[in-house]
């Protein structure tokens, strides 16, 4: 069972690479649009990918020091997206 930690490390590195590629595609969507809501969804996905990347990095290094950072960023991201959604909804009600 000595190969199992190395295999798990390899899987985590592959996860980080795939998250990076996905983040590049999301940045393209963020820049191209076509609407503000598309950009908002892309920004939410980018924040979620950043959080998942931090968790995968914490699992790879074996540290739990990033957990408060992940919680704080997720709360800020949630509050930001709900605030923008509320303003967009107000604009469509008129």
TrEMBL record:
Its main location: membrane. It is found in: Cell membrane. Keywords: Cell membrane, Membrane, Transmembrane, Transmembrane helix, Transport. It is a multi-pass membrane protein. The keyword Transcription does not apply. InterPro entries: MrpF/PhaF-like. The chain crosses the membrane at residues 6-28, 40-60, 66-88. Belongs to the CPA3 antiporters (TC 2.A.63) subunit F family. This is Multisubunit sodium/proton antiporter MrpF subunit. It comes from Actinomycetospora straminea.
């Amino acid at each position: 069972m000595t190969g199992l930690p190395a295999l798990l490390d390899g899987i985590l590195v592959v996860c980080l690479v795939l998250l990076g590629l996905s983040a590049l595609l999301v940045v393209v969507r963020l820049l191209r649009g076509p609407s503000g809501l598309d950009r908002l969804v892309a920004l939410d996905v980018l924040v979620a990918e950043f959080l998942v990347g931090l968790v995968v990095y914490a699992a790879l290094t074996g540290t739990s020091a990033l957990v408060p950072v992940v919680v704080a960023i997720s709360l800020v991201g949630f509050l930001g997206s709900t605030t923008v959604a509320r303003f967009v909804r107000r604009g469509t009600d008129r």
